Amino acid sequence: MAMAATVAFLTTVIALSIVAAAAQSAAPAATQYNNYTVGGAAGWMFSTATNASAANYPSWAANITFNLGDYLIFNTTTNETVIQTYNLTTYQSCSTDDAVDTDTFQYGGGDDDFNLPEVISVPLTQVGPNYFFSDAFGGIQCEQGLAFGIVVHYGLGLPPSLNQPPPPPYTAPPSPSVVLPPSTLQPTGGGFRACGERLVWFDPLLWIR
Q1: From CA 163, how far away is CA 172, in angstroms rounded?
Q2: How far apart are CA 149 and CA 65, in angstroms?
Q3: Taking Cα atoms as reference points, which of 58, 57, 47 lies closest to residue 15?
Q4: Domains (ranges, CATH) in the chain?
Q5: Cα torsion at 153, 156, 159, 163 (round to 10°)?
Q6: Is the pLDDT of residue 26 over 80?
Q7: pLDDT tens digits, residue range 121-174?
Q8: Which of 28, 84, 123, 132 has the fewest CB atoms within 10 Å, measured from its CB?
């Protein structure tokens, strides 16, 4: 059963790669930005009772044209995670163990309480293949169908809200200046001498015999 699921998963990956090459030139012109609820009414869910995902996500995505600036809405729970990656190897592995933070992003997960509903919105900000999967339960959810890939087209381009320059690199604040102790003034012909904060007055006339 596990072998069959793996073969089906790899077949989907190969098919997506072939479709991606042809779809770039066949995408209809975009007229607006759209939100798409992943899996429709089924949501982004996995059943531990049946060890299966709630929907066929590649089939759900197959007839939709995705563009920059669109959002994918994941109606899910804290039992699942949402991993977005541009790295085919990461997607095929159903794991983020060897992923890098420049091409793979995690939404959700890390909650100690299970079965809590949550809604995760993921913007599409990069043209080309985008892959999504859940790495929960050691990648079993992904291997059993909680995964899909799409091709993102340019469409209208990124809206201003998503087309922001990256923040400037972090610069450490300057270290505090070294405070030197007050200098000691030694008058040569009388006057005062400063020692710390105490001022002592010397009258040279008192020393004339």
Answers
A1: 27
A2: 12
A3: 58
A4: 2-153 (2.60.40.420)
A5: 60
A6: no
A7: 999 999 999 999 999 999 999 999 999 999 999 999 999 999 877 667 667 777
A8: 28
Does residue 152 contact residue 166 with C-beta atoms inside 8 Å?
Answer: no
CA-based end-to-end distance of the chain: 115
- Distance in angstroms (rounded) separating the CA atoms of residues 148 and 61: 8
Per-residue model confidence (pLDDT) at position 133: 98
Q: Which two tokens stand for residue 37?
A: 């609820």
Is the pLDDT at 209 greater than 90? The verdict is: no
Residue that has been written with the tokens 């190969």 in this structure: 14
* DSSP 8-state assignment for residue 120: E
Query: How far apart (Å, rounded) are the C-alpha atoms in residues 190 and 40?
Result: 94
How many C-beta atoms lie closer than 10 Å to residue 11's C-beta? Answer: 11
